[in-house]
């Protein structure tokens, strides 16, 4: 059974339908809203929990939970069986990624990127300068063989980035710490497309930035907080959250959702609302994914 | 050794309160000493068997069948919850034991966690005494409460666990004398362990050096009384010394939203331009946050006690703490820390100002506290003490004397079942009295007819008319 089928069978509730989205998309959300699967014209909520980063590797779906005091990363195989990696030395895991055969996780609270084995032990720790949550390291991507991470800025102290959001954000090489993109405001979800185009959610500036051979174009999402980005043959899929600090009492009125953007013209084709306040990640699932 | 630890709370599910932190420190310490450790704990959401930090952790959910019954949970809520949760823990432990037997089981927190393993006699069980073992005050509960049976049951379960456990250890002598008065000399004193490689004066700080005159306040900010106390202390200190920035380390905040709300609520009380930062007590960051301070004030009701005291002391920071609970068994007042009465704002302000302005005094208190923690709570040393306790438990376990002692403990328990039945009778009577008007009518008619009141003959006639055949409870 493929991972998509396994997810579909875990449906908790059907939240809506959609049209004209050729890809199978998985969206993770915070505040215990779990994950939403866009598949066969139907949107199903397929899990509970507050979930951040998503990745698929070797027929398995990996998903990180929001937990400030530990790392808890789920791993679901094609049969729908889930196991967990748990570690208490790191925490507030924002993103996860397989890179060169190792499983990397961003431990935002300890300002590091670590390699976590299946038994939850840390086999490598790449510590960034600064104490505590200094840089607010968040999302990972593979840029032509370089593991890159987005961060709120190169700060020294725990949460020094608070109030210093504007144009301090960067995308940096994890190994060399070379800054590859700067002048961003609370950036998330760096993505390299197969044609060499680089994209990033410039979240605080409410924009999706698309860099084609050095020419940067912006897609604006006024009043939204873009975070979570994935792509298919034709489209870019962008998670759009409510602006930060939305009153949770008004969560029922939340209008977060996913924007579908034409990959070539950058025209926003449609917005699919979801019953969530904050989206963290968006992932296009390989349709033919087979179980390991 | 292959060691099983049974602790209903184990981090990170349900957070890092004092008991959970103790179980964690113990498990990590035993693992570091080369033992094979498996942990059995309750699950917050999902039942699982995971490898956490290199240890196998079994998490079980409470069996809801009993808890969802209609009447019994109203009368014995705690006994029922304890029974349901601990039987689930024991089931998981038994399964693991049958696959690969444990050499010993350690019960580092609540005695009931060890009841079923100890009664089973399958494996040597070692229990640790705790300050508040009972949910009820034995003296006051008996006569008046509808929870008499619950109280009796809970206390019996605790006593039985103590009686059948192979070895008992306690963090101090006083507790041993209070809880095991007949055999207190048999109780081994083993302090609470702390990882001194993490909590040390050396290492990075999470806050800027230029504000290292910082006062860190540790406590539950969502508790209104604690919140007010912290803000009053900040106001008072700020009035006398404007150069001290403040950091509130909130033990009961687990999300960005809660952190934001706490920050806003402090702002409302202290004004827009107050020098206070509120942050979650990130487990991984606590050492760096504590090192950022000169003085640390632990508010009353801290849920991380005793670790909220031991961690600043280990980090060689001057501590101001509330004199509550067993604090004097961990801290020498005036030497290792300054102790103030709970919620005494003036004394707290004076202590903070005193320590902030006098460097030598601050250093003296910090060094003394640090030395005490190193002498008593060093994880390696504590684990060595525990290993002796385990070895003694394993050696004694198979002796005929111990087998006889276990049988006697069970015999005593059965003997004391009379008290349980009496409590059950009283509980049923109280319940019927509250729930049934007819029962109350019968009760009062009988009461008057049995009295010396002039109305007694009339009440007797009424009783005959209505066919009341009733016997009142002793206490009504």
Low-confidence stretches of chain B: 135-144
| Cα distance spanning the termini of chain A | 10 Å
What structural category do the secondary elements of chain A indicate? mainly beta
Percent strand of chain B equals: 5-15%
Instruction: Give the helix level of chain B as a range of percent.
Output: 40-55%
Overall form of chain A: globular
Care to give the gist of this entry?
Chain A has one helix spanning 3-8, and strands spanning 13-17, 24-29, 34-39, 42-47, 51-57, 60-65, 71-76, 82-87, 93-99, 102-107, 112-116, 122-127, 140-143, 146-151, 169-173, 179-184, 187-192, 198-202, 207-212, 215-220, 224-231, 235-242, 257-262, 268-273, 279-285. Chain A is mostly beta strands. Chain A is globular, with a radius of gyration of 18 Å.
Notes on the protein architecture:
The complex is a heterodimer of chains A (292) and B (476). Helices cover 2% and strands 52% of the residues of chain A. Chain A has one helix and 25 strands. In chain A, the strands form six sheets. A five-stranded antiparallel beta sheet of chain A has the order 1-4-3-2-25. Chain A has a four-stranded antiparallel beta sheet with strand order 5-6-7-8, with no helix packed on it. Chain B has 476 residues and is of the alpha/beta class. Chain B is 50% helix and 14% strand. Chain B has 19 helices and 14 strands. In chain B, helix 1 (18-32) links the parallel strand 1 (2-6) and strand 2. In chain B, helix 4 packs parallel to helix 7, helix 7 (148-164) runs antiparallel to helix 17 (417-435) and helix 18 (437-449) crosses helix 19. Chain B starts with a strand and ends in a 10-residue tail after the last helix. The model of chain B is unreliable at 135-144 (pLDDT under 50). The chains are: A mainly beta (292), B alpha/beta (476). Chains A and B meet through strand 8 of A and strand 3 and strand 11 of B. Strand 8 (82-87) of chain A pairs parallel with strand 3 of chain B.
